[in-house]
Amino acid sequence: MAGQSVGSLAFDEFGRPFFILKDEESQTRLTGNDAIKSHIIAAKTVAGTLRTSLGPKGLDKLMQSPDGDVTITNDGATILKMMDVDHQIAKLMVQLSQSQDDEIGDGTTGVVVLCGALLEQAEFLIDKGIHPIRIADGFEMAASCAVKHLDTIADTFTIDPKDTENLVRTAKTTLGSKIINKCHDQMAKIAVDAVMSVADFETKDVNFELIKVEAKVGGRMEDSMLVKGVVVDKDFSHPQMPKELKDVSLAILTCPFEPPKPKTKHKLDVESVEDYRKLRDYEKETFEKMVDQVKDAGATLAICQWGFDDEANHLLLQKKLPAVRWVGGPEIELIAIATGGRIVPRFQELTAEKLGKAGLVRELSFGTTKDRMLVIEECKNSKAVTIFLRGGTKMIIEEAKRSMHDALCVVRNLVRDNRVVYGGGAAEISCALAVSREADNIKSIEQYAFRAFSDALEIIPIALAENCGLNAIQTLTEIKARQVSENNPALGVNCMENGAGDMKEKSVIETLHSKKSQIQLATQLVKMILKIDDIRSPSNM
Questions:
Q1: Which of 14, 18, 241, 425 is most buried by a 10 A CB count?
Q2: Which position among 75, 106, 193, 235 bears the catalytic label?
Q3: Which of the following is catalytic: 101, 386, 406, 475?
Q4: Which phi-psi region, left, alpha or beta, contains residue 469 (left: φ > 0; alpha: ψ -120 to 50)?
């Protein structure tokens, strides 16, 4: 930092300069291979934590936050986000998982497990005396070889809004490892229908802001549904207002139902009963004028971002104008998009053209509780949809939300790039075989890194086999032999039955985009870690 001394310059007896670093005795320092091995141990520990969560038979983790909140999940990004990690490299692994989640939405566990396997293989090569930079370069070359091979084994899916069977099969693969897999047919269909409703096939993009995920504790998971409209966690402001409205014109207001307050700091003194009555009449007159303005515009329902008091509420009931108060900003925007209305900041600006249109607005009530929600359906713009999830406990609901997010992301990725590869470790085994073959053609020392990369790719099918109770090495050997003899890159670990199986027949499908991203992101992080050979940190760390 400018103006701060980090050390001093000195000269030895021959006049040669050397630099004395400040506070060197209070710092701990690791250099060379010791530093790299320290990183590798930290990364392997993080990867080992997630390894048992991989695949449809993967186990869940229970995480407790400092304030006592409990989360049960097997989503890699969520586990790492909630883990309290101090080591610098472990934090990089957390960011790696988050990058995969932000870019792809799925494969967050696999990318961390692969990164840990690559670093484990790098450790063996360093022990053999190979320079870390040569290992990193070899891994990068091997990753590009694997990515090219993925292009050759990928299949193309036709994306047809009328026939979504292919998309549902892919979404079911994603949901297979989640807690909601008991009704993954229904959940996959909900995710696909939601994306198809808002997808723009010309630009091949999906606007996730038009898909709202709302959840309510209680009921069965099978009660979850897709609403072609907006679900708002509010009810009508007065219990005597009608519970169902048809052919509704909505006034979407961000101005409160209350008399205007002076914007200065002057106070109003009421010195007599007459003054009080005048003030009371003025307030009543203002309320009536506001309600009349809304009614005159042709509105049959007022959606208000702010609250209003009992007097205004009673007046709205008298004037037969149903209203909803305290509707949040994001929900207001979604209602405006769905109904084609305009958000109105002042009553004076409200006109018939700015009203939103909806075919049906109804109030839902749940079980024996007094919880109610509003459903706005048959909207002018059918592109806004809401996924409404139910579940027995808050933890199940939260995990269902995360699972639905993964499924939505996978379907969106297929809309963007409709090429797929097959899961169950089939793509990784095929890439491992291709990288191993390519290693024979390399004359430089990088061929060691190629073979190590090939071994690291096999960690995914090994972990899948271990997690479903199979003999991992025997299963892997059998699949590799069959892939070579039958020339079938779709053969992988069949976690639901015994051993090897054709993933194409079993409809275990992953997007090509996700698989490429896993290999590239893991390799980039490994290269970065292998380049660090000096760690300086305060001695109390």
A1: 425
A2: 75
A3: 406
A4: left
